Amino acid sequence: MSSGFLKNFCHSCIAFLLIWATSACAWRTAEADHFIGPILFRAIQPPEGKAYIWEEKSVFPLMFEAGEHSGMTIGLIKRLTAYPVDGNTNWLIKWCSGIFSFSCSRPSMSDGWHWSLFYSRVVHGKAPEFHDRTVIGTSIGAGTDGRYLTIGYSAETQLRPRDNAYYIFCYTRRDPLRMRFEVAKDATEFANYFNQEACK
Amino acid sequence: MSMTYYSKKTVALSALILMGQALLSGCNNYLVFTTATKFGLDVSQEAGQPPKMALGYKRAEAAIIPAEHKLANETDDTYAVLSDFCVMANPSIYDWWDTLKTSNANPEGVRDSLQIRSIFATGLAAREAAETEAIQAHFARAVMQRTRMGATDKHCF
């Protein structure tokens, strides 16, 4: 084996490790988000919270996304997504950290941010109806989060409620896990939302 | 295109909507509500609309009803949305810092960069809600209250 081949091989390995260590990939589907590479994650759901919420934050300045939303971000990205509480308790957010791991844990607010270094997935069961996406840097993408190219600072929220439903939605970016996102079962329950304390 | 440099701006928006409007085609939702803060260069495109470009500072709040052009009937009403939206936006340098930090602490005294309070119904649920007396009374009260308050109230809840 020539020394040139070994040198090239070593350089390729170093380049691969550098890219691996400084980037993350997210594969987004309607039921789950898969993460490869270093990323931070946290979530909250009933009964601890008043909505099903999961939030991710990039650690290193390169992130690729594919699946229902595709794109690339050079910089930092923070993405919060949620769907409402509607009386159906079958949906649960689960956190699975191994490719072949069938024993997933149920994240809670008290856990704070989870670190994922190599692979993990968030199983959320159904598609989010709200997202808040913040990017510092350059980002290009298309899909469920819209079609865009941004350079600089960008913070965008989008709420896409389902049809024929009654909603309450209270959101504060300073404390996003306090979000109240609920669907009422009828007009009578909906009328109860109309008081000043509903979002407190 | 919107261009305003370094304008620290607080926007309080309250909208009472009971209307139908066909703004976009090809969207499945009865209602889409968005807020955005951009600083730098932004090129974006929404379904059925031409691409938009903004350079500088841009803030936006929008409630869109992208219904298809079809008449309402007893089982379907893509035009009906009953909503009470309040948005308070106060973009600041803290937003940038908050994206970088990993602690859960929210220091006291730092103003919230975004608050959204919305209570709404879509489709046939909106029609039913509009006929409910308690909800009619709320909207009447809310109109009077917001008129008195104007833009002086800097929070939604």
Topology:
The complex is a heterodimer of chains A (200) and B (157).
Chain A: H1 3-22, E1 24-28, E2 32-36, E3 39-44, E4 52-58, E5 62-67, E6 69-83, E7 94-96, E8 114-116, E9 119-123, E10 130-143, E11 147-159, E12 166-172, E13 180-184, H2 187-191
Parallel strand pairs in A: 1-5
Antiparallel strand pairs in A: 1-2, 2-9, 3-4, 3-8, 4-6, 5-6, 6-10, 7-9, 10-11, 12-13
Chain B: E1 11-18, E2 32-45, E3 52-64, E4 81-89, H1 93-100, E5 114-122, H2 124-130, H3 133-149
Could you explain how this protein is built, in words?
The complex is a heterodimer of chains A (200) and B (157). The model of chain A has no long low-confidence stretch (mean pLDDT 88). Chain A has one domain (25-191). Chain A is elongated, with a radius of gyration of 20 Å. Chain A is mainly β. In chain A, the strands form two sheets. In chain A, strands 1, 2, 3, 4, 5, 6, 7, 8, 9, 10 and 11 form an eleven-stranded mixed sheet that branches. Chain A has helices spanning 3-22, 187-191; strands at residues 24-28, 32-36, 39-44, 52-58, 62-67, 69-83, 94-96, 114-116, 119-123, 130-143, 147-159, 166-172, 180-184. Chain B has one domain (11-149). The two termini of chain B are 31 Å apart. In chain B, 30% of the residues are buried. Chains A and B meet through strand 11, strand 12 and helix 2 of A and strand 2, helix 1, strand 5, helix 2 and helix 3 of B.
